[in-house]
């Protein structure tokens, strides 16, 4: 097999590093508990953003400032963001006991947010009263996520 | 009067055509995460594109040749090939994002998955490229892009604390939940979005398409000095609306649909519809520009007949590159890649290639053999040199920042 020139090797290494960097949340075991906490914080922040986005667009829908098709798309996008964050965090193995204890707290909160967004998505097929009922849990959920985010940031 | 109308139309087209998918995503995401702390970077980027687009337009008007043909002639085929490969690949990545942007804009009102709309968007882009005269194409989508002025209206309607906004621009602070590296990543992204290489290739080739001569140098200056900065104001307005609505709600921008959310909050359904239309026009126009830039760069490097001013049968290879680029762009888009991530990577990788794009323009615009008395003056040379140094630093930092910040995620 022909050997690669130095220039080609450098190019391969650079491309590999960029591709490695593209994997925003690599899965598997995390050696460092601080790294695990950081991933947990990112998961909570992504979830919080998704809930905030859905809450905002649902608010515009209920006050007649949005189209149903647009609202539905924003909620779909928020749900997709949340599911990606949830799936990624679920596959990361906690490195120690403290991380193992943190895991269910994060995942339970994220799962509750996911249920709330699915409920909202379902309600968007109905009338405004159904949407209003589905929006109610989003505020308390956002507070819960903010509190968890602050705890993990501190 | 006819001349004045032409200049005014040119300026309006430049304003409306300034914003593309990269600007939409980078400015909204930066506003949501950093407020207006990085607004100054947009101003630096706009000044940079003004400096180099003026040079590129002047070169095209004086020599009646586009920049790429002169790069090969002045700097040799090896350098020009490196330039071609880098700009073509980044251009293709940008085209993927723009076609997806068109599809997403339609999907926001049509209740259809944007993936299903990608082939339709690609077909529409190709049909316009094939059938519509250059000037019509440029004007229609540029002028429709002016609908994005609705973001400026939304800023005023949201009634911000102007003093606080100005304070955050003049005294930028790093948000507690962000690192210096993510901030640097978005600095690179904003500069990459404002100074995307295809913009100058399109601008200079467009000048040749419209048969500019030295008589059109004032039109060049008007487009660049008035149109581009006002286009930059649209970028800042997008950033400001995200700062005012998304940031307080803790919402980061992961999808194009979120970019128009502040307009919906501020202006309701009419504003939302206008904003979505503006995004459609901006991304459609940019899809046309990136497709054409792909064809221009390859055809000009290889010395083929090129341009929409040439009959398609006489520029068959140029049109084949256009069609091939649109098809490849659509196929990549159909693979389900995240359009926002593609956009982020395209603008940051654009930043990595910026010196490769702008150095040749600087060299050619400074060459009295090509330019005669219209070569760069002291101001253009000073600004051009400062920007080359800045762009080199940005280019060196771009890829390490992608790796360190995991693509800006933190």
Tell me the number of helical segments of chain B per DSSP (H or I, 4 or more residues long): 17
DSSP summary, beta strand count of chain B = 0
| Mean pLDDT over the full residue set of chain A | 88
- List SSEs of chain A in N-to-C order: HEHHEHHH
**For the terminal residues of chain B, how far apart are their CA atoms?**
54 Å
Q: What is the oligomer described by this structure?
A: heterodimer
Query: What spatial form of chain B do the alpha-carbon principal axes imply?
Result: globular
**End-to-end distance of chain A, in Å?**
54 Å
Mean pLDDT of chain B, rounded to whole units?
Answer: 92
Gyration radius of chain A, in Å: 20 Å
Structural class of chain B: mainly alpha
Helix content of chain B: over 70%
Radius of gyration of chain B: 20 Å
Unreliable residue stretches of chain B:
none
- Alpha-beta content class of chain A: mainly alpha
Structure description:
The complex is a heterodimer of chains A (154) and B (410). Chain A has helices spanning 6-22, 33-62, 68-90, 97-123, 128-135, 138-153, and strands at 28-29, 92-93. Chain A has 154 residues and is mostly helical. Chain A has a two-stranded parallel ribbon. The radius of gyration of chain A is 20 Å and the shape is flat. The model of chain A is unreliable at 21-27 (pLDDT under 50). The longest helix of chain B is centred in the C-terminal third of the chain and has 42 residues, at 261-302. The A-B interface holds A 14, 17-18, 20-25, 38, 42, 45-46, 48-50, 52-53, 55-57, 59-60, 64-67, 69-70, 72-74, 77, 80-81, 142, 146, 153 and B 107-111, 176-177, 245-246, 249-252, 254-255, 257-258, 260-261, 264-265, 267-269, 272-273, 276, 341, 345, 399, 402-407, 409-410.
């Amino acid at each position: 097999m022909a050997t690669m020139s130095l220039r080609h090797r450098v190019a391969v290494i650079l491309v590999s590093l960029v591709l490695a960097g593209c994997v925003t949340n690599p899965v598997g075991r995390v050696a460092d508990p601080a790294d695990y906490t950081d991933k947990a914080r990112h998961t909570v922040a992504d979830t919080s953003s998704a809930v905030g986005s859905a809450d905002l667009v649902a608010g515009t829908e209920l006050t007649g400032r949005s189209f149903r098709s647009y609202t539905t798309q924003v909620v779909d996008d928020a749900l997709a963001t949340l599911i990606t964050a949830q799936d990624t965090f679920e596959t990361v193995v906690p490195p120690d006991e403290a991380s193992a204890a943190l895991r269910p707290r994060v995942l339970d909160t994220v799962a509750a947010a996911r249920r709330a967004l699915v409920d909202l998505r379902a309600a968007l097929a109905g009338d405004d009263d159904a949407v209003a009922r589905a929006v109610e849990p989003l505020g308390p959920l956002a507070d819960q996520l903010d509190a968890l985010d602050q705890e993990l940031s501190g | 009067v006819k001349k004045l109308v032409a200049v005014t139309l040119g300026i309006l087209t430049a304003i409306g055509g300034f914003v593309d998918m990269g600007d939409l995503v980078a400015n909204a995401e930066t506003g949501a995460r950093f407020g207006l702390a990085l607004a100054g970077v947009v101003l630096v980027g706009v000044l940079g594109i003004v400096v180099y687009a003026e040079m590129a337009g002047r070169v095209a008007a004086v020599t009646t040749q586009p920049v790429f043909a002169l790069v090969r002639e002045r700097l040799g085929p090896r350098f020009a090939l490196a330039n071609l490969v880098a700009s073509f690949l980044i251009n293709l990545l940008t085209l993927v994002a723009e076609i997806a942007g068109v599809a997403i804009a339609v999907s926001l009102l049509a209740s259809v998955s944007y993936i299903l709309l990608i082939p339709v968007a690609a077909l529409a882009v190709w049909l316009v490229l094939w059938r519509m005269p250059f000037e019509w194409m440029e004007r229609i989508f540029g002028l429709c892009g002016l609908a994005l002025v609705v973001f400026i209206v939304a800023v005023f309607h949201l009634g911000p604390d102007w003093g606080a906004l100005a304070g955050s621009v003049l005294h930028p602070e790093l948000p507690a939940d962000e690192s210096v590296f993510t901030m640097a990543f978005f600095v690179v992204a904003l500069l990459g979005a404002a100074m995307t290489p295809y913009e100058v290739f399109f601008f200079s080739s467009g000048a040749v398409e419209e048969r500019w001569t030295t008589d059109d140098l004032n039109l060049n200056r008007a487009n660049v000095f008035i149109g581009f900065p006002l286009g930059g104001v649209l970028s800042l307005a997008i950033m400001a609306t995200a700062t005012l609505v998304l940031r307080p709600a803790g919402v980061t921008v992961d999808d194009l649909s979120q970019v128009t959310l502040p307009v919906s909050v501020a202006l309701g359904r009419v504003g939302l519809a206008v904003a979505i239309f503006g995004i459609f026009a901006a991304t459609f126009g940019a899809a046309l520009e990136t497709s054409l830039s792909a064809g221009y760069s390859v055809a000009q490097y290889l010395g083929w007949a090129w341009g929409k001013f040439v009959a398609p049968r006489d520029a068959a290879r140029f049109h084949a590159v256009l069609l091939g680029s649109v098809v490849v762009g659509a196929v990549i888009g159909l693979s389900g890649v995240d359009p926002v991530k593609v956009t982020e990577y395209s603008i940051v990788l654009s930043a990595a290639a910026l010196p490769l794009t702008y150095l040749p323009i600087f060299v050619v615009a400074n060459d009295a053999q090509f330019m005669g008395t219209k070569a760069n003056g002291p101001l253009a040379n000073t600004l051009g040199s400062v920007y080359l140094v800045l762009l080199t630093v940005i280019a060196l930092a771009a890829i390490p920042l992608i790796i360190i910040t995991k693509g800006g995620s933190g």
